[in-house]
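Per your request, structure below.
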């Protein structure tokens, strides 16, 4: 049921984002991994259609090795971040290789690569 729930959550996110932008009473932050340019463009379009200003903040990731070390540390501490997925080395490889870093999208880069 993961995919249908994901689709439902994304539709709700879109609707809520539109409502908040139409109200125009506060800043809105979408805190999610927009790992594909297609996803970033989707939200940028919504924001621009509602006459708002968008800012793309890209947290340049740490090394894959450090990320794996952090995952292992969280697992050892029994912190699962409510993830529906068990992050294995293969799953991490899939995320790592599939991530489309923003380049020339007006992104603000925050370097978090420190060990």
């Amino acid at each position: 049921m993961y995919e249908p729930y994901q689709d439902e959550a994304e539709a709700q996110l879109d609707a809520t984002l539109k409502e908040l932008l139409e109200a125009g009473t506060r800043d809105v932050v979408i805190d999610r991994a927009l790992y594909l340019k297609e996803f970033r463009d989707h939200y940028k379009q919504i924001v621009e259609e509602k006459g708002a200003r968008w800012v793309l903040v890209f947290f340049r990731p740490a090394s894959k090795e450090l990320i794996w070390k952090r995952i292992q540390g969280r697992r050892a501490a029994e912190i699962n971040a409510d993830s529906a997925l068990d992050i294995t080395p293969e799953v991490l490889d899939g995320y790592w290789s599939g991530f489309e870093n923003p380049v020339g999208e007006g992104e603000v880069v925050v370097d978090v690569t420190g060990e």
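The mean pLDDT is 89.

Regards,
D.
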